[in-house]
């Protein structure tokens, strides 16, 4: 057995490489100038990597602000001891206002009703409610329409309980920075910021670039970049990979919990979607399944690493377990695995590597979704 830190109660875990996380964070920090900020996006439990520990590493490596998707994610970050500003990337229900103020979480704002209620409550508590305005420049997800931002500020700015700390938009196609769609969003955002300034409004911290934008379109960095996926060492597209190399942070490991040699023709797993062929096959069970984020569509279509080599996953992936085959080959006539042997579902083992990108491609999705999935139930081990 390799000596690895691992959880005492389960032979499957997510290994989080804090050194890689630190270096990736520094790489993003070095993309911006000394007067610009790095906002680390840690929504969805830091893309499945565990927000409390990741935020500490990012803070030490140069983060200036954190962004979350839900109010409770912001609360978790505060309860983990984070003191940096926290930006909520959505406008929550008005019922969340007391929590925002109590935990010092800045909401994104785009409706006058929410702004008003937030300002009223803040003023009643003798506080000032900081917020960022979200501008819709073409993604059509959230935000004040780009032509209505000045009017929006006019309608809320007089409120003594409100303070605009920032103005931002989000890009739909930042992976194609030369494309017409992206150029149009950039133009609309730049014009909206100019219009605010001309009308005498201070936009606060101006920001729009996500990971691909930060890497591929530095002209749009403004006062802050909002990096997410890249911090975790995952590339949002092929183009960014050649500009900014990053180190994957998450590996997924498991140990064999059972082995057997079923006779030729016997099935493996629910529905017997795999049957043992003529050759002798050692069926090994790993205690990780689709409830741990290993997509069931990968059944019979993925490999895992064992002693630096690829072996096939066989049979339908179950909720909490899956099976792999250690087959005899002419090269390895007696390659046997034993209970307790280490296997790698994602990550490196010797010279071999399985990436989240490879798995994402095989199931027709993106690395973002797989990282979030693996974060949901597996224990995280920080190395
Ligand atoms: C998720 C998100 C980001 C981060 O995007 P990445 O592609 O992971 O860098 C930035 N801004 C907003 C508004 C987001 O929702």
Automatic annotation (TrEMBL):
Residues 334-369 form the EF-hand domain. The modification N6-(pyridoxal phosphate)lysine is found at residue 43. Gene3D superfamilies: Alanine racemase, Lyase, Ornithine Decarboxylase, Chain A, domain 1. Keywords: Isomerase, Pyridoxal phosphate. CDD domains: PLPDE_III_AR. The keyword Cytoplasm does not apply. One of its GO terms (molecular function) is alanine racemase activity. GO terms for cellular component: cytosol. SUPFAM superfamilies: Alanine racemase C-terminal domain-like, PLP-binding barrel. GO terms for biological process: D-alanine biosynthetic process. InterPro entries: Ala_racemase (IPR000821), Ala_racemase/Decarboxylase_C (IPR009006), Ala_racemase_C (IPR011079), Ala_racemase_N (IPR001608), Ala_racemase_pyridoxalP-BS (IPR020622), EF_hand_dom (IPR002048), PLP-binding_barrel (IPR029066). SMART domains: Ala_racemase_C (SM01005). It comes from the Bacteria. The active site is at 43 (proton acceptor), 270 (proton acceptor). Its cofactor is pyridoxal 5'-phosphate. Its EC number is 5.1.1.1. Pathway: Amino-acid biosynthesis; D-alanine biosynthesis; D-alanine from L-alanine: step 1/1. Belongs to the alanine racemase family. NCBIfam families: alr. HAMAP family: Ala_racemase. This is Alanine racemase. The lineage of its organism: Bacteria, Bacillati, Actinomycetota, Coriobacteriia, Coriobacteriales. The gene is alr.
């Amino acid at each position: 057995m390799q000596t690895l830190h691992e959880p005492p109660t389960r032979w499957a875990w997510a290994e989080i490489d804090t050194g890689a996380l630190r270096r990736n964070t520094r790489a993003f920090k070095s993309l911006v100038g000394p007067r610009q900020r790095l906002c680390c996006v840690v929504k969805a439990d830091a893309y499945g990597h565990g927000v409390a520990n990741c935020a500490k590493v990012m803070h030490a490596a140069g983060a200036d602000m954190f962004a979350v998707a839900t109010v409770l994610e912001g609360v978790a970050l505060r309860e983990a001891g984070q003191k940096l500003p926290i930006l909520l990337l959505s406008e929550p229900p008005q019922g969340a206002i007391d929590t925002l103020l109590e935990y010092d979480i800045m909401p994104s704002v785009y409706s006058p009703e929410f702004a008003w209620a937030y300002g009223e409550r803040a003023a009643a508590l003798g506080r000032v409610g900081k917020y960022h305005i979200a501008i819709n420049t073409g993604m059509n997800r959230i935000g004040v329409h780009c032509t209505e931002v000045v009017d929006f500020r006019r309608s809320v700015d007089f409120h003594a309980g409100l303070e605009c700390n920032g103005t931002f938009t989000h890009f739909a196609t930042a992976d194609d920075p030369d494309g017409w769609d992206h150029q149009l969003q950039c133009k609309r955002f730049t014009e909206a910021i100019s219009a605010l300034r001309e009308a005498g409004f201070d936009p606060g911290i101006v920001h729009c670039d996500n990971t691909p934008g930060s890497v591929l379109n530095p002209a749009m960095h403004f006062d802050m970049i909002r990096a997410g996926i890249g911090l975790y060492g995952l590339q949002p597209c092929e183009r960014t990979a050649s500009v900014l190399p990053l180190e994957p942070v998450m590996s997924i490991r498991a140990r064999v919990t059972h082995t057997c040699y079923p006779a030729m023709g016997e099935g493996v797993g629910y529905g017997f979607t795999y049957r043992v062929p003529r050759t002798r096959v050692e069926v090994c069970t790993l205690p990780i399944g689709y409830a741990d984020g290993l997509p069931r569509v990968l059944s019979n279509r993925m490999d895992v690493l064992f002693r630096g080599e690829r072996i096939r996953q066989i049979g339908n992936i179950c909720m909490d377990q899956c099976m792999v085959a250690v087959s005899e080959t002419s090269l390895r006539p007696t390659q046997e695995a034993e209970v307790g042997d280490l296997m790698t579902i994602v990550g490196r083992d010797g010279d071999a590597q399985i990436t989240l990108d490879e798995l994402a491609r095989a199931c027709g999705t993106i690395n973002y979704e797989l990282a979030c999935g693996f974060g949901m139930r597996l224990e995280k081990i920080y190395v």
